[in-house]
Prior knowledge:
The chain is built from nine helices and no strands. By secondary structure, the protein is an all-alpha fold. It has one domain (42-166).
Amino acid sequence: TAARTIAMVFFIIVSATCFAYVYRALGGDDIVEKLIKEAGLTNWGLLILIMAITFFLGFFLDWIEITLIVLPVFAPLIGGLDFGDHLPKQDVVHWFAILMALNLQTSFLTPPFGFALFYLKGIAPKEIKIQSIYLGIIPFVILQVIALATVMAWPNVALWLMRGAYGD
């Protein structure tokens, strides 16, 4: 069973790499960037849209698939944005990576495919139904979203350690 899991993860990585290569070779990143610029979204609007898309994908995809498919599409867009006085330009990519990590953590808790839900069901007494677990995680998902919003509003909450270790 370990060999099957490793093969599946390897297949996902190879497939996502092929997707990213073809996507970039065909100019997909330019097309997405053009569409977003034509949509008239502000930098904040784009960031919120990307976070919403990632959150929504967390309901249906594993964090590995989201990371390998979404990051090659959105990271170059975010890396080129300027959030003015809110965040120095050199920290935007690090901040985005932290926001993505927080958002992906939520995918472990969201039904129908949240891994943590199945782990909980596996160790819970038999009389506890999966529906009860689904209802029980709602406060934790809300806390995750609050944490995501906090780091968006105050980047120093997440960047202080990096800045302390590596300097400004």
